[in-house]
Amino acid sequence: MFKLRFSGIRYLFFRAHFYSLFLTTVTILSILLSVYVLFRPEWLSFQSIFLFISLYIVISAILSVYIGFYASGSLKSRLDAMSVLITQYANGNYDSYIQSVEKDEISRITNELNELGKKLQNQVKSLQRMADEKAEFTKSAHKAAVIEERQRIARDLHDAVSQQLFALTMMSEAAVRQLKKQPEIAKTQMQEVSQAALQAQTEMRALLLHLRPVHLSGDSLAEGVHKLITELKQKSQLAFRVSIPEDLMVSDTVEDHVFRIIQESLSNILRHASATEVNLEISNRSKELFIHIRDNGKGFDVTNDYERKTSYGLKTMQERSEELGGTFMIRSNKDEGTYIDIRIPC
Question: What are the residue ranges spanned by the domains of the chain?
Answer without folding.
Answer: 2-93, 217-346
